[in-house]
Amino acid sequence: MRIGKLTRWLTGLGFMAVGTYHFVNPQFFLIMMPEWIPGHLFWVLFTGGAEFAGGLGLLLPFARIRYSASVGLVVLLLGVWIANWYMAIYCIDPTGGQFSCWAMWARVPLQLPLLWIVWKLRKN
Fold first, then answer.
1. From CA 29, how far away is CA 31, in angstroms rounded?
2. By the 8 A CB rule, do 58 and 69 touch?
3. CB under 8 Å to 105, separation ≥6 — which residues?
């Protein structure tokens, strides 16, 4: 099954927007960081840059770059999945209390469809 150009563009722009938000409001992402990971601000900014670059890579007209961007985003998503689990286990809401613990648990399996879409985009 192939994923369409619209999905590629929405996914790419979405990653670019979230990546930009890492720089605009790093505090939002710092809350999600497990305490056992050193250099929180570095990782927030690094993952923001990687999300932006990966999203941009999905939009470029070169198949090799889109393939590399897709694979890189899959690796990134697997890495940041740690934050989703951490938020669920400890009921951490980065919005300051707008969501309940069940919403944090709902995020954990929602990462799987996103991983699947990004993986499929490597062939588009």
1. 5
2. yes
3. 88
Structure tokens at 16: 């670019």
C-alpha span between 100 and 119 (Å, rounded): 30
* Residue with token string 């919005």: 95
Classify burial at 57, counting beta carbons within 10 Å of its beta carbon; exposed 0-12, middle 13-18, buried 19 or more.
buried
- Strand ranges for 70-117 from DSSP E: none
Residue 43's alpha-carbon distances to 2, 34, 59, 66, in angstroms, are 33, 11, 24, 24
- CA dihedral of 8, 88, 109, 75, whole degrees rounded to 10: 50
36-77 tens-digit pLDDT: 999 999 999 999 999 999 999 999 999 999 999 999 999 999
pTM (global) more than 0.85? yes
